Amino acid sequence: MTTPSFVIGIAGGTGAGKTTVARLVARSVGDAATRIPLDNYYEDLSHLPFEEREGVNYDHPSAFEWELVREQLSSLLDGSPVEMPTYDFEVHNRTDETTRVEPTEVVLVEGIFALYDDAVRELCDLRLYVETDADVRILRRIERDVIDRGRDLEGVIDQYLSTVKPMHERFVEPTKKHADLIVPEGANSVAVGLLEERVRAAVTGTASGGSNREPIEESLGDRIATDSEG
Ligand SMILES: Nc1ncnc2c1ncn2[C@@H]1O[C@H](COP(=O)(O)OP(=O)(O)O)[C@@H](O)[C@H]1O
Ligand SMILES: Nc1ccn([C@@H]2O[C@H](COP(=O)(O)O)[C@@H](O)[C@H]2O)c(=O)n1
Fold it and tell me: Which residues line ligand 2 (CB under 6 A)?
């Protein structure tokens, strides 16, 4: 049985580069890492017709099934596999299928609200906030939503102005204060390289310290005291 030893939370605005960072970092340790995209945990809206699902505010924390996120992450950290929901952006709903996720050494939880929920944050050893300017993010999003998510330009712009932008400012950006590290631009090669080294060390068991399950005062306490003694 594998019990994950290193959990990374990757938050940031839409289009910031969270998924790209998570993919690159996960790839560097192959099967030893699992990605948990929080998008898969949008509430099941099967009870609503498509036209109503189209109008939902998907950038409010209440759009997510947090109980399921907490439950499945805890199971993985206890070494048990989970049946992760899957999401279809074209129909604004979960699919009927789930993906079996086995616990691995490294777990990467990524999504706009990866640092929002207290319990989820507590489960993370390293918390990242990917920070990219809003103009770059909207340009990336337009391209992605039109090409990959079956949206039209007018709809993407309307959604951005009515919910995505205000919710980002109200709920997503403030979670930056919970980050241990801020990653500029997304797939920033220096940051990704350092993260790759850190997860490789976690997998080979050579990592020293740096776990946030231990409060900073405890992990750095001696060094802070020594430094202040001059
Ligand atoms: N540093 C970067 N420079 C240029 N493009 C990037 C960078 N990081 C990510 N991207 C691109 O931006 C787009 C959005 O990235 P993605 O990882 O899907 O964002 P998020 O998961 O935060 O919504 C993708 O097309 C990705 O290839
Ligand atoms: N049916 C949905 C569900 C979510 N969204 C948008 O996805 C964004 C989060 O995903 P990122 O990969 O961009 O981080 C979020 O901003 C939602 O607006 C959607 O458009 N439709």
Answer: 14-15, 18-19, 39, 42, 58-59, 89, 92, 112, 164
- Angstrom distances, CA of residue 73 to CA of 66, 135, 137, 183, 228: 11, 33, 28, 24, 39
Please give the average per-residue pLDDT across 30-54, as a whole number: 97
* Residue 1 covered by a domain: no
Specify the long-range contacts of residues 155-159, CB closer than 8 Å, at least 24 apart: none
What is the average pLDDT score of the chain? 92
Spatial separation of the C-alpha atoms in residues 79 and 91, rounded to whole Å? 33
Pairing state between β 6-12 and 126-131: parallel
Structure letter (DSSP) for residue 44: P
Domain count, the chain: 1
Q: What is the per-residue pLDDT for 212?
A: 46
Residue with the larger pLDDT of the pair 135 and 1: 135
| Token pair of 127 as six digits | 């918390």
Domain of 81: which CATH number?
3.40.50.300
Rounded to whole angstroms, the Cα distance separating 119 from 67 reads: 10
Surface-to-core class of residue 73, CB atoms within 10 Å of its CB (0-12 exposed, 13-18 middle, 19+ buried): buried
Ligand 2 atom 4, closest CA: 58
